[in-house]
Amino acid sequence: MIKRTASWRMQTWPPAAQLEIAMLFLLFGLWLVARPYTGIWHDSQLYTAQALHRLYPEIYGADVFFRFGSQDSYTLFPALYAWAIRLWGIDQAAYLLTLLGKLGWFAALVYLARELLRIPALWLGLALVVSVAPFYGSHKIFSYGETFLTARLYAETFGLLALGFWLRRRPLPALAATGTALCLHPLMALPVLALIICMASPSTRHTVIFTTVATMGGLGALFLSSPEAAFAPLRLYEQDWFEFVDIRNQYVVLCNWGAGVWANAVFAAAIWISVLAVGEERDRHLSVSILLTTGLALLFAWLGTSAFHHVLLTQIQLWRFLWLFQLLALLMLAKVAPLLWKGQVIDRIYLGCLGCALLLDDEPRLFLAILGTLGWGCLRWRLPDWRPTRLYWFLLGLIPLLTLVIKLSALAYWSLANRVFLDKPIWVTLLTDPLTVLLGASVVAYGLRRKGSNFHHVLLWSGLGMMVFGLLYWDRRPEGSELESPARLGAIAQVQEFIPPDATVYWQNGLVETWFILKRAHYASSEQSVGVLFSRDTARQLKVRQQRLLQAHFSDGEIYLDKTLLPPEAKPTFADVRYLCEDPELDYVIMQEPVSPQVDLAFRNPTAHLEGYVYRCARLRTEVASYYRGGMS
User: Fold this and answer.
1) Whose CA is closest to 590, among 508, 485, 483?
2) Distance CA 548, CA 258 (A)
3) For the residues 87-112, what does the mean pLDDT come to?
4) Angle of helix 455-473 versus helix 434-449 axis, rounded to 10
5) Which 3 state secondary structure label does DSSP give 405?
6) H helical segments located in 145-280
7) What is the DSSP letter of 41?
8) For residue 629, with 0-12 CB atoms within 10 Å meaning exposed, 13-18 middle and 19 or more buried, which class applies?
């Protein structure tokens, strides 16, 4: 009976299937641990506000972020998010949609990777994507597979699916997935669309182009719905508008990118060049296509943002092509690594150089990627049979030694920094680092090579345990951070009754509280000024309001990306509140501390982490007017 049970298990779960399931569980769990969910922050605040704007246009329509139009006009995501909020509330909707997006994103990545890579390169490629920092662009603001809810997460999911379908020669599902990605986030779908067009064979290219023109025509009809937008393709930024954009949206302007910012892109380019040199025919075709599309995109992005200050070329942010460029490069590194290892001595040296660059960041990675690629290319072309002397071997051996020293130092620093500033356990930083993941991959490869061992059973249970642990660990929202908790809703109820729905409120450092708890239009903040890139009127309005905030010693007046907090002695006073209320667009000011006994309403609930002191601007303006009338008489 026992033997039959064992035989049945082995037929149901063959070693290959056990290995595949174990590795998927293990990598997915590791990915959840590496990038946990921390609530509604970053751009998820903007997408949540867009969804609430769909639900309550009479309230949020007066907000400066929406008054002159916003990006939600070009995506279906806020409407879907609004439907989820209506069903489950803000907190639960954001949590469930983020979890669904993470599951879909990882599944789409696996679907694409299975077509590009064979086992065991498949597992190495997925491990690299899971462990290597996913940032692209400047200031480490944007990353693929984000840990918070945005339309980008879902657009990337459908983009990866589209490429998976296309590489399997299924053009109709590929175009359908691309169209869905375009409807969710056109800017994130553009690199997928461009890559498919570039890879299309002459027999199918006309179908792809026709579908592309039809899709983009529909989006263009929405864009050209206003008379002003009809001339957008020819417009240049006015000087004051571009200066504000250059200050607030520094990451958009390519001339603001430092050398370290280009490290990830250059490293990815080095991988694609190696694929072009030693890869298979289909991989070389993919390499040429993605190098061409991304290179042209970056060229036009530089021309638009830095050379001519062109409105449309700046707004479509063609540098976002880098998300796909870098993600696919990590997958292809797993495929090209064994090819380089089987090549000549110079190929193995170059592989070691790429491995060292993988473990480093910023300028060291940039230096190794450029120097290694140039040296490898020149020697491979001029001296293909070159063999280094002992002196060269000694000098080359210093590279991994220095890399290890730098890596361990950085790992120790970031482990402590993440623990102190982000409350991230040290073991999480160590576990999810590329160095640890590569060492773990070596252990797995060694265990699987041992014949007669039950290592695949151990790996299966380890993978299952890692996935369960990842799902349990993934929700890392701080305690008491729920926006619609009963305590917070109870604490804010009297304020909602006091402040009418159509009022504009400035809550000191409280954009989240104003938008999502009080549910009122907010006066101005640095987060709202992200929309100045797309609207001249929004830029002018916010510039005036943030200058007023800055003159009144409110830190929300800081429009720079790297905020510098105001000194303690410059705290706002009652005179500053009065000055702020001189703007007729502002109806109420909510301060964190009382600045005058003349408070219209005070509320405090330590359990809900809410405290505020409400000043009605109409009363303050009347008092000032009465004072001056009395002085005149």
Assistant:
1) 508
2) 32
3) 97
4) 150
5) helix
6) 151-167, 171-184, 186-199, 202-223, 239-248, 263-278
7) -
8) exposed
Q: What's the burial of 628, exposed, middle or buried (CB within 10 Å: 0-12/13-18/19+)?
A: exposed
Backbone φ, ψ for residue 89 (5° rounding): 90, 170
> Where are the alpha helices (H) located in 360-452, listed in sequence order?
362-382, 390-421, 426-431, 434-449
**Whole-Å CA distances, 149 to 81, 178, 250, 469:** 10, 20, 23, 22
Judge if the upstream peptide bond of residue 501 is cis by omega within 30 degrees of 0: no
Distances (CA, A) of 516 to 227, 312, 340, 464: 34, 32, 53, 37
Dihedral of CA 615/618/619/622: which sign? Answer: positive
Residue type at 508 in one-letter notation: Q
Q: How far apart are CA 595 and CA 579, in angstroms?
A: 13
| pLDDT for residue 210 | 54
Q: Which residue has the higher pLDDT, 326 or 11?
A: 326
Distance, in Å, from the CA atom of 249 to the CA atom of 255, rounded to the nearest integer, reads 12
The region of weakest confidence among 117-121, 230-234, 578-582 is: 230-234
Write the DSSP symbol of residue 303: I
Using an 8 Å Cβ cutoff, are 503 and 521 in contact? yes
Quote the CA–CA distance of 298 and 254 in Å, as a whole number.
Answer: 9
Rounded distance between C-alpha atoms, residue 40 and residue 57, angstroms: 21
User: Tokens 């950085």 belong to which residue?
Assistant: 410
Compute the distance between CA of residue 28 and CA of residue 25 in angstroms, rounded to an integer.
5
Rounded Cα distance between 493 and 484, Å, is 12
Residues 538, 527: Cα–Cα separation, whole Å: 13
Strand partners, 138: none
Burial class (CB in 10 A: 0-12, 13-18, 19+), 144: buried
Nearest-angstrom CA–CA distance, 154 and 137: 19
Phi, psi of 475 (to 5 degrees): -80, 100
State the Cα–Cα distance between residues 359 and 101, nearest whole angstrom.
28
Residue for token digits 């619609």? 484
Question: How far apart, in whole angstroms, are the C-alpha atoms of residue 131 and residue 107?
Answer: 17
Which residues neighbour 489 within 8 Å (Cβ) at sequence distance 6 or greater? 517
Angstrom distance (rounded) from CA 389 to CA 532:
58
Give the pair of three-digit tokens for residue 328: 């696919």
Distance CA 541, CA 628 (A): 28
Q: Does residue 529 surpass a pLDDT of 80? A: yes
Six-digit token string for 623: 């008092």
pTM for the whole structure: 0.91
Q: 614: helix, coil or strand?
A: strand
* The two three-digit tokens of residue 27, written as one number: 């990598």
Neighbours of 213 (CB within 10 A): 11
Identify the burial level of 401 via C-beta atoms within 10 angstroms of its C-beta, where 0-12 means exposed, 13-18 middle and 19 or more buried: exposed
CA distance 144 to 78: 20
Among candidates 375, 302, 320, 332, which has minimal Cα distance to 143?
A: 320
C-alpha–C-alpha distance, residues 508 and 577, integer Å: 10
Beta-sheet pairing, 588-591 with 521-522: unpaired
List pLDDT tens digits, range 267-299: 999 999 999 999 999 999 999 999 999 999 999
Q: DSSP string of 81-121?
A: HHHHHHHH-HHHHHHHHHHHHHHHHHHHHHHHHHHH--TTH
- How many other β-carbons are positioned within 10 Å of the β-carbon of residue 264? 26
